[in-house]
Amino acid sequence: MKPVVALIGRPNVGKSTIFNQITKSRQALVADLAGLTRDRQYGDALFEDKAFIVVDTGGIGEDDDGSGNIDDYMATQSYTAIHEADILVFVVDARAGLVGSDEVIAKQLHTLGKPVFLVANKVDGVHEASIGEFFALGFGKPFATTASHGRGITNLLEHLTADMPSTAVEEKAPDGLKLAIIGRPNVGKSTLVNRLLGEERVVVFDMPGTTRDSIYIPFEREGQNYVLIDTAGVRRRGRIDEKVEKFSVIKTLQAIKDANVVVLVIDAQEGITDQDLHILGYALDAGRAMVIAINKWDNLDQDKKDWVKIDMERRFNFIPYVKIHLISALHGTGTGNLYPSIHKAYASAMLSISTSRLTQILQDAVSAHQPPMVSGRRIKLRFAHMGGHNPPIIVVHGNQTGQIPNSYKRYLENEFRKVFKLEGTPVRVEFKQNANPYADRKNTMTEAQKERKRREVQKFKKRDKKR
C-alpha cells in the first residue's frame, strides 16, 4: 500500500502550494468532495521511484482564540486525515514567525508517535536566525522552502521518501480477480460484502500496514479466485452497524487503484446523489472497470422505482457501457447476477488484441469516417497497437495527431468498443505523432550536383534574355 503523507498547519502557511509542487509530477487524482472533504485535497505523488498519497488537510486553528483548545481545532476532517496518515508534514510560516497555535498543534503531534517533518515555508527575505525559533517546537531543524518558487521542495522530498519502499518492490497482493466495493456511508457496502462472501470465506487477513489500509479478503466461488477489497473492514455476520460506518476518501482511493473491478453501491431510497457521482468520477479517472449496484431496491414502492429508473437514465447517460443491477444486499435479491457482469467487465478491461487486428479496425473506422482536415491537409492515421490493460489503452500512430479533436477520439473509442463488445470498462485511445526521419537532415549537394544546378540556372537565364 502507498504511504500517506498529510500536510498540516495553520491556514495560509502555504500547504496547498506545497501540495501542488509535490503532486505536479503526476496530476492530482481527486478534487474536492462536497460535503465530505470540502477543504481537503487528495493527490497521487511520485518522487523518483517512490509513490505515495498526499493529503492537504486544510487549515487547523482557524478559530484560534488563544485558549489552546486543540480538540476544537481538530474536530474536523483534518483529525481523520492526520490519524490516517503515515507521515506528517507540519508547515509553519517563516515570515509570521512562531505563533501560539503552532505550539498547540506541535504539542498534539508529539502525542501521535508518527514521523513529523517540520517545514518553514516562505523563507525568502527572512533572516536565518528567525527560522531558528522553530526549534522550540521539538522537531529539529526545519526544512526551509519557498513553495511558490519550488525552492527546497526537492530536498524535502529526498528526506521525506528516504524510508519509503520503491514501487517496484511493493508487497504483492494476493492472486485473484481484485474486486472493490465502494460507495458513500450507509448505502449497504458492508451487507453486500458479507452477502458476496457468504459461506465461501476461507481466509481473512489484514495486509500489513496502518489503520487506513483496506482489508484484502481472498475467497473462491465456483472455481474462480477473488480478492475482495473491503474499505470498511471485515465484520462478523450479525455485528454489522452501517450507522457507524465511516467514509474515508483515502480508503476509497486505495481500493479503486488496487482493484481490477469496482462495484459502486448506491442507496435506491436516497436516489443518485452528487457524492455518488464524485465517487463514480474517481473510478472513471482511474480507468477502472465498473458495475453499479442500486441497493435496497425492494424497499421502494412502484412510483419511487419508476422515478429512480428515470433518474438513472439521465444521470448515467455518459456511461452506457456500465451494467446497472437492482439489488437487495440484505435479502440477497439480484446479488448473484453481479458476478457475470463483474467477469465481463474484467475480461473487457484485460483486452489483448494483435496489432494487425487493431490496425484493420482503425482502417475500417477511418474509411467510414475520415479525420478532419488541418491546414488543408488530411490527418493520416497509420496503425494501432495495444498500449496497456485495465483500462485497455489503444495507441494510434499517424501524422498531425496532435490536431485530432476530442469528438473524433470519442468516435474511435466507440468503434473499438463496438467491434470488441467491451462492457463495463473505459477505453482509452492515445495518439502518437510519427517522427519525420528527415526532420533534422540537411541535403548536402556534391560538386557534380552543384555544377549541374549552375548550368541549369544559366540555361534558364539565357532563355529569358531571348524572350
UniProtKB/TrEMBL annotation:
Bias kind Basic and acidic residues: ranges: 441-450
One GO MF term attached to the UniProt entry: GTP binding
Keywords annotated in UniProt: GTP-binding, Nucleotide-binding, Repeat, Ribosome biogenesis
UniProt function note: GTPase that plays an essential role in the late steps of ribosome biogenesis.
One GO biological process term: ribosome biogenesis
Binding positions for GTP 2 per the UniProt entry: 183-190, 230-234, 295-298
Organism of this sequence: Moraxella macacae 0408225
Binding site for GTP 1: 9-16, 56-60, 121-124
One Pfam family here: MMR_HSR1
PROSITE patterns (UniProt xref): G_ENGA
Region entry Disordered, spans: 441-467
InterPro entries: G_ENGA, GTP-bd, GTPase_Der, KH_dom-like, KH_dom-like_a/b, P-loop_NTPase, Small_GTP-bd
Complexes and interactors: Associates with the 50S ribosomal subunit.
Biased composition (Basic residues): 451-467
Domain EngA-type G: 3-168, 177-350
Highest taxon listed in the record's lineage: Bacteria
Entry's family note: Belongs to the TRAFAC class TrmE-Era-EngA-EngB-Septin-like GTPase superfamily. EngA (Der) GTPase family.
Name the record gives this protein: GTPase Der
Transmembrane segments: none
